Amino acid sequence: MEMMAQFAQGSDMIADILLIAGALGAGFYCLVLSRRLRRFNDLEKGVGGAVAVLSAQVDDMTKTLDKAHRAAVSSTGSLDQLTERAEDAAKRLELLVASMHDLPEPPAPKPNKAQEPVSEETLFKSHRDRAEAEV
Length: 135
Fold this sequence. Notes:
The protein has helices at about 1-40, 45-100, 125-135. With about 140 residues, the protein is mainly α.
């Protein structure tokens, strides 16, 4: 029985040593994980910093998109007004052109005796001068 008691004491001691070694290993593993997590969440170098930068960029893009949307709505309103004005002007021009067909033709202008006759062949004054000099 004594031997069994010694064996039980020895196995308890081995179990305690293994338990202490396991606890120390788990503690060391937790220490390593905490350091890695700290570096991971570092706002300057780690993923935490990248997430913070991306979040700021998303905010900036949202503001820019809102401004662009407001500008587009404003432009749409002014384009609608300009289109209405252009359509009104086109209608008035159509009426004016239609009323021009009803007017009598103006009399042909009387030829002025002071004007010299222009030959159909001479297009420019310099050509005409040359033609007259040759005659």
